[in-house]
Amino acid sequence: MKHSIRTRFTLIFISLMAGAIVILWGANSWWLEGYYMSEKVKDLEQAYIQVDNLLAVQRAAGTDIADEFEKNREARLKGGPVEEGPMGKLMRSLNESSNISMVIMSDSAVVLSNEREGDYLSERFLRNILGQNKQPFEVVSKTDHYTIQQSFDPSIKSYYLECWGFFSDDSTTFIMSMPVASIRESAALSNRFLAYIGMVVLAIGSTVIFFTTKRITMPILMLTHLAERMSNLDFDAHYTGNETDEIGVLGHSMNALSDRLRDTIGELKTANLQLQRDIEEKIQIDEMRKEFVANVSHELKTPIALIQGYAEGLTEGMAEDPESRDYYCEVIMDEANKMNKMVKQLLTLSALESGNDAPVMERFDLTELIRGVVTSAQILISQKAVSVEFQRDAPCYVWADEFKIEEVVMNYLNNAINHADGERRIVITLQENGGEVCVSVFNTGNHIPEEDLPNLWTKFYKVDKARTRAYGGSGIGLSIVKAIMDSHQKQCGVENVDGGVRFWFTLDCSRG
């Protein structure tokens, strides 16, 4: 196997060890010197802060370091013991802890020093402040009160850090110096040692990992081989390992699975597919039947009750005069017509939803179709006292089922006529956009509640049940529109606009 799991495990562990060694080597080579110098600079900065704070305390107490220097000088002249003051103790502590030599001066005269060669440091300070330092140096840090620089002393061939300047009282000057070890040589030596140790560790670790991963990955390779044979429908392969861990349990489970698949895979596939089809078909039929029975029962309840009531009234002689009998018969016939219309709509919707009434695509003039629908509805338009505006004269050819699109336009127009209010205006427009045309039917009147908009396309859904009942609506018309547009794989919708409601649908244009 070209990239076996054993090889990958080995390479991963070796890469991790090699990476750790390289990171350590790189850290020593690139960052150790900078880190060392930054720590030394911090030591000088901290020393400056400590001495400056002590000077401030002494000034506040009315004492001066010159007094401490004078006491020490008199003690030395008399040959008596020299008693260190607070500043002397601090300077000695800095020399012992950080190897910092320091001279504090006033008017360029040494006042206090923790270095025997204080005059030498004072001379260096004067050269720095006068710009006469001839030794090579590099400024490391600089503030308003002090400068820290790295210098090289050719006489001893060694680097040292110097901090010189003024304390915060702007009258007391100082110079601090500390040697800097040759960290580059130390880092190079450390890297050579690290390289030797790293190669030894890498060699030993690689050998150990190689043989260890063999024991770990062997059962996995066996399971891989078993799975490959099972994928080729070879169920005679079995796992032969004796492990009691999770891999062993997995291997024996795969053996059991192989045995079962060998006996049942053929008939199981056939039975499963057939069962799935039967279940889906049964669920679909049951849901459709329940929904259909519930909706139809609800919709037929009112007209049947009316027909029964008026028929009983005729039978029992409640309509004594011919005018009353004619009214009773008219109500019965009207309700029967409503039921007949609803049944036809249900049959149409059922055929559309089942896919048995696929659209017959043809090229026709949509403008002429809309004009014909408006003309056929003139009687209803006059009865409802509404005005219909459709001002397009230019033809607009589309590809669709002309009969079904006529039903869509008729449903939209009837819906607008029955719900027009206020100015009682209906405006039909065609708007071409690229390869599509959008037909919209707008009617003035009240807006449809936003929460009802998504449900308008559901069978038997009515926003205003009393109003829908008054004009003979069943709540199926818009469901038929949605089914027709879905069969054409085109869009339809409704939206509240200024002054009323707009229904729309789209079709593909036919140029030329």
TrEMBL record:
| EC number(s) recorded for this UniProt protein | 2.7.13.3
Catalytic activities: ATP + protein L-histidine = ADP + protein N-phospho-L-histidine
InterPro entries with a match to the protein in the record: BphY/WalK/GraS-like, HAMP_dom, HATPase_C_sf, HATPase_dom, His_kinase_dom, HisK_dim/P_dom, HisK_dim/P_sf
Q: Which GO terms describe its cellular component?
A: plasma membrane
Key words of the record: Kinase, Membrane, Phosphoprotein, Transferase, Transmembrane, Transmembrane helix, Two-component regulatory system
| SUPFAM superfamilies, A to Z | ATPase domain of HSP90 chaperone/DNA topoisomerase II/histidine kinase (SSF55874), HAMP domain-like (SSF158472), Homodimeric domain of signal transducing histidine kinase (SSF47384)
Top-level EC class as recorded in UniProt: transferase
GO terms in the biological process aspect are:
cellular response to phosphate starvation
Any GO MF annotation of the entry: phosphoprotein phosphatase activity
Residue span(s) of domain HAMP: 214-266
Tell me where it resides: Membrane
For this protein, the record's CDD domains field holds: HAMP, HisKA
Where is this chain primarily localised?
membrane
Q: Which residues form the Histidine kinase domain?
A: 295-511
The regions listed as transmembrane in this protein's record are 12-32, 193-212
Keyword Membrane belongs to the record: yes
* Record protein name field: histidine kinase
Originating organism:
Candidatus Caccovicinus merdipullorum
